[in-house]
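Practice problem: predict the structure.
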Amino acid sequence: MNHPVRNSRSEVLAPFGMRSFRFQFPADLLTSWGFEMENLILGWYILTTTGSVLLLTVYGSLQYVGTLIAPIFGLAGDRLGHRNVLCTMRVVYASLAALMTTLAALAILTPAVVMMIATIAGLIRPSDLAMRNALVAETMPGDRLMAAMGVARTTSDSARVVGSLAGAALFALFGMAPAYIVITAFYATGFSLTLGVGAPRPSDAMARLSFWRDLREGMAYVWDTPASLAAMWLAFLVNMTAFPLTLGLLPYVAREIYHVDQTGLGSLVASFAVGALTGSIAIGFAGRSIRPARMMIIYAIVWYVMLLAFIHVPGITGGRLTLVLAGFAQSLSMVPMAVMLLHGAGARFRGRVMGVRMLAIYGLPLGLLAAGGLIERFGFAATATGYCVVGLLMTGAIAARWRAALWPLDAEANAR
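Answer:
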């Protein structure tokens, strides 16, 4: 008789039996740490240098300008190889971080320069997660995919713990230039490890097909597949109304609501990340027992409820606890969504579908920009509460509209 704990442990460790995953996991981990350190350091820099929550939200929004061209990155991955595209992207990250290190060391860094570099990085970074997910699906057997996606998600979740705390500590103790030396080293090492990921060579037939026709086919596939279309709308919704509260606006909450410094900000970011990391690990253990579409909807609702609690609970201790719970629910909604999309797309549409999925991130800069003006007029609590109420109502509407594709146990979107 098999012991359930042993089975769960085998489930979460199974992806590491693949040589490619043993390279990709640390590569994604170091890259994610670099992302989170940059986000915290530059967000705090913009807020403290300018004193403007509106400019803070503009900075946050610039990091996602590339969502509009994410389908092109997805198609490039399908045609040229996801590993090749990912390596190129990571060379750019390292180069930009090295430039930031130089400017900070020479004391000529300004908010305007930060905004310019954030714009360049923002053209590329939104597609990084799509390329990672497509590469995992490309190199992982189908029976290990759910566990692999859960384990792979821990790279970005743990980065929000380590990256936020390490970034805050390095910035506070040594200043921006030394902190950016570490960030540059993370990106460069991540690139080197990505070179070791093995992936099937793109077919010559794929390379001969029309670029724009392939792109239209990917968009048409999503539009004509009810479960995929529902997932895209939900992804856009949470990016517009949920993620702004725990990404771009946390520096404002730390400084103006809780009156703490960058170390306190790091603890808030880390709290959400600890919950998300725990959720990703739980998915890795649960593996094939998960019904993806049902999990996606149920935990999106729980996520909004926890964010409402975060907004209204008094004191930073209560804020940290509710952020942990919100992060946990976020993982249990978003990881099954990605697996559902990858399973349905198959090898032909995998990169394009994940590229279209990244289009949904465009909701994040829209939500951030709107929040900046609304907070200045109505305050944080009223604005954030409105975001959560709208999110809950629209999640219910999505679940009702595509119920036949998302809820039945025998639906393809709930296949184990």
